[in-house]
Amino acid sequence: MSTERGVHDADMARQLARKPRRFERLIVGSLFIAGAISIAITIGILWELGSESLLFFLDDDVTLGKFFFSTEWSPQAGSFGIWPLILGTMLITVIALLVAIPVGLSAAIYLSEYASPRVRNFLKPVLEILVGIPTVVFGFFALTFMTPLLRSIFGSQVGFFNVLSAGIVVGLLIVPLVSSLAEDAMAAVPDSLRQASYGLGASRLETSLRVVVPAALSGIAAGVVVAMSRAVGETMVVTLASGASPRNFSLADDSLFGYILSPFEGAQTMTGYIAITASGDISYDTIDYNSIFAIGLTLFVITLGLNSLSRRIVKRFRQEYE
Amino acid sequence: MTTQTPQKSPLDYFPTEDEYQRLLDKRTRRGTAVRITFLLMLAVAVVGLGILLYTIIDDSFGIVAVVNENEPEDILAAYGYDPTVTVLSDLNKEQLVEVLAGSISSGVGRRLEREQRFFADRLVFESQAKWDEVCASDEPPSGCGGGVRSKADVVALVEERVIAPDIIDASRLTASIFNPQRFKDKVEADFLTNPDRYEDYTFDQVRFQWRAWFSWKFITSPASDKPEIAGVRTAVLGSIWLVAITVLFAVPVGVGAAIYLEEFAKPTRINDFIQTNINNLAGVPSIIYGMLGLAVLVRVLEPITSGSLFGDGAPNGRTILSAGLTLGLLTLPVVIISSQEAIRAVPNSLRQAGMGLGATKWQTVRSQVLPVAIPGILTGTILAVARAIGETAPLILVGAAGFITVSPSGPFSQFTALPIQIFQWTSLPQEEWRHLAAAASLVLLVLLLSLNAVAVLLRNRYSRRLT
Predict the structure, then answer these.
(1) Residues A126-145: what's their mean pLDDT?
(2) Residues 6 or more apart in contact with residue B102 via CB below 8 angstroms
(3) Cβ–Cβ below 8 Å for B332 and A41
(4) Do B45 and A31 touch (CB under 8 A)?
């Protein structure tokens, strides 16, 4: 009798497990679709950047060679060489990193290795507030504070629009990114390493610079690369503070430090060109309209490259601690 | 013969007491120096933030130099009041309307009256016959149905239309407090050196008065091409509409995707690809999303986003719907990633207990996992939405109009938004607009900081329960 009943229960369990659950499958199906929308977004981005860029390159005025090798970008005159825009982006990114790396790394080392919990609890929210401030407000700050400040320090050689002001403010903007990623990396270093170092008589400075930082180097490097990609893609600060004219140059005629790499003059960036060209009613299928997509594609490739570089750094050089 | 090398004692390898002290001092000094350098660097970031906030507040208040078309004193004196003890709002409503009627054209008066009447029992600018005719038409103006203008409303109208202040220069908060005379001298010097600019006025007409650019009136006034009366209502409403659409799109899709990836996805190729893809999307610059919005939502999907598919719509796809969806696409990866983290933090024992009781996978997720994960999901979502509110570049791309005075009325309206307004005002060269940009930034920052505070509170309140 009892065995019979046991068989019956097992049967039922098997039946229940096999019961088709349409509702459940519907739910899982729609959740999958939600996940797959991200693929649709990627396809959308690739399709739109690709197809409009193709139209751009099919234009009579444009050739691939000129796009990649000419150093003059003046759409009105029909010359489309991307280098002046890349130059602007590069200058601002370099200045931004010169600000953000020392400040961000110092902040990270201090917060992770030196600060008492009380100091940490005060300083971390400050950095978090910095993350929450919209970039257009940073742009306002660059234009109304940083540029006048630089002009009062360096005199009238500093243009009203200049890459130095934009670069410094972009640097301030990415400090929290550098510091939080670096701090995460240092927090992942196990305490036993620090204790071993202290046990050998090392000071706090020696422990943090010679033990913790090297152990966390891959994470720190990855953070810097991510910050760099963020600086390259930053739009509002550079649109407001760095001006709307590309820095066309000729390697043969222009002085390298006086003009081409000068931080005191304005230079339009890739993002700045896209934003300025698209503001106002831009008409479809004009060369201007198509050109922003070609610039966008270049920007997309650069940032994607930087982001995957950062992931590869982490993967390749990560130290596994138990 | 063997040379006897002196046996070195292990102690000889150690420095002498003096040397030891010297080296130790050196290490300590270096340690302190570097520690101070770290602190200084950190101070750069903190001071940078401080100066940024200071700049914005400094520009949001201060003394302005104003030239009035009509002086309020003259108006008061005309009604027999003593201008030294009374202010405009001491006049009664009849007198105020009379002042208004004496100063504006009858056309403007009729327009104002059609917007909202001045008195319930009589008409000021319109004849009764014409009024009845207008109100009987197919589209009667708002004045036909609504109530009457309040006295405060009439005072505001008199200030705007009769006194009609023109701000010719503005000073900052700290300068106004510590050195107001310098600003006055500067304006006076301007009059001497720049007579062309001020040919309609003399310096004696200039009044110096305090002005809070950031005020309740600033938040509730619509945009205007006159800095004296311009406000951010249009932009704030636009931002609210955008956030609503962003949340409606990004939260269900984002949380759904996170649940799928964390709870249901088996490690197949396609699921791995989705995960990598989401991580990549999170790093794409926001301006690229703007281009996606422009090319796909505004242009290709124009029949849907302009609303023409559903009857009457906007002339093109540059609508709130396009912009909101663009921000939604931009926010989606961030929402997914933060929701995934929240779901991952739910202890496995809960899932096992649910399944052990015979619940199906979805039942377990719905009744065990999600309730525990929701605070974390909410926190991440609020932070993502706060980021979306501040986004400017994608909105420029999808065609936020810079100058709009009509409040948005639905998803198919043209729109402007707070960050766009800040961008436009910052780009204008005159001093007054810069102060407006600062005040608008302050509005935006207050909004974002309160959202962030809510997120932090949520996190603190529920993090205890989880552990």
Answers:
(1) 90
(2) none
(3) yes
(4) no
